[in-house]
Amino acid sequence: MATTGSNLKLIHVKTACEACRVRELCLPTSLTEADISLVDELVVRREPLEKGDYLYRTGDDFRGLYAVQYGAIKTYGLTLQGREQVTGFHLAGEVLGLDAIDQEVHPCNAIALEKTEVCQLPFDKLEQLTQSLPGLSHNLSRVMSREILREQHVLMMLGGTTAEQRIVRFILNLQKRMAQREIMGHSFRFCMSRQDISNYLGLALETVSRQFTHLQEKQIIDIQNRHITILQPEALQKLAD
Amino acid sequence: MATTGSNLKLIHVKTACEACRVRELCLPTSLTEADISLVDELVVRREPLEKGDYLYRTGDDFRGLYAVQYGAIKTYGLTLQGREQVTGFHLAGEVLGLDAIDQEVHPCNAIALEKTEVCQLPFDKLEQLTQSLPGLSHNLSRVMSREILREQHVLMMLGGTTAEQRIVRFILNLQKRMAQREIMGHSFRFCMSRQDISNYLGLALETVSRQFTHLQEKQIIDIQNRHITILQPEALQKLAD
DNA sequence: TAGCCAAGTTGATCCAGATCAAAGAGGTTC
DNA sequence: GAACCTCTTTGATCTGGATCAACTTGGCTA
After folding, report:
1. What fold, for A160-240?
2. Nearest chain B residue (CA) to A107
3. A60 CA to chain B: closest CA distance, Å?
4. A121-150 residues touching B, CB cutoff 8 A
5. Are B66 and B17 in contact (CB under 8 A)?
6. Domain-by-domain residue ranges, chain A?
7. CATH topology of domain B5-153
8. d(Cα B86, Cα B63) in Å, to the nearest integer?
9. pTM confidence score
10. What is the pLDDT of residues A21-34, one digit of tens each?
11. What is the pLDDT of residues B60-112, one digit of tens each?
């Protein structure tokens, strides 16, 4: 319901393929070039979101899936108390909105953590296309399956571990996802606050800060504000286990 | 005494449908009777599993999805350390195996917690059928979407809560799922051990035991071994928030 | 029916991480 | 550049739940 005016401006793109990474990132299997361009034609691009803008809010009608072009989106829900619970961070090349397909209503809030551009894949049209493209249906299932698996990994990460392990695994996970997109080594920028990290990992904000400090003291990482450099990747990996 | 529509439907239907609840439980939308029987024809039934039998193990080839007929299945993964992490409990009427679609390999172990019968839905055949049944594809997406949502709720349940809240929410969740299938009020049997519960909730086994005792002392529940009766549903609900 | 083993309970102690408090560091806005 | 605000760090204290240990109960087998 409450979507800001600027978000409503939609721009249709013909040669979306190049601009929008839907092809390889969202639906990565054996479709022909021609098939892929059919999918690309569905894509609706949106005005870039500024930091703090909502892509959607809890209760909004489900219009389609979103693929992040650049930037980062945080999704979070509210518990009965009104406590905020971060459910995920979505970086460039990743999809969100899969959780809304069933009820056709978004069950959580999605907010931009920095300047972010997304493209929208209207789900009804995607399903129509499924009929003429047998492979597309399978692709969609794979994307959803991967999302289920991803959430299971989060559960595994949170279960039975110390604060240090959580932080370490979080860093490694983020680094891996960053590296998949852009060719950058062991140095990158956090798009989320300590607050968000602590909420996501089920720790106190202060604990997150302290753990970062400890890792820095051990010369395993270097953190300046939100910019991190992994100095000893092996040591970090070892701590994760 | 809310007998759901789906329960009534079940009674009307004979043959494969009746035995296997795939129709309304797994794929609950607008397919015609004829369509549904096409789906039912795919179903492969398996010999009942005894307690402790594995339905599949990590690394096994993905052959299809499974719908639990009766009984209960626990899924768990192993961390790098070899530590066991329970990722879910699957009761009668629920589906598992969705996490294997992407890699075509099961990423976790599935073991029966008691005598259990499942039916198998060969996924390749299901996808073939998708071509002739437009609605089926949508149904599948909905089932997967619901699974994604379910896992998000687990995250929300675990985040920022006390041991008591986790236990209470776990009880309520289980009760809800039990009640959906069988018409039973506030009394049911746990199919999993304290060990499994503690692992799933990220608590120590002893903590789980103590929390049960506390709730019993407060006369909110009554626990005899693995049989629980919720004496004060409102009080329990209140604790969950 | 006794004997055994796994599952569950209960008690005592300890510590990782929460909470409370306050000071520093960036980033905006005017 | 000053004022302001939010984010982050650091310190001190407290506590919920983990851990260690011993005991009880239930279920199974012979």
Report:
1. Arc Repressor Mutant, subunit A (1.10.10)
2. B149
3. 16
4. 127, 130-131, 134, 137-138, 140-149
5. no
6. 5-153, 160-240
7. Jelly Rolls (2.60.120)
8. 22
9. 0.85
10. 555 444 555 666 67
11. 999 999 999 889 999 999 887 778 899 999 998 889 999 999 999 999 999 99
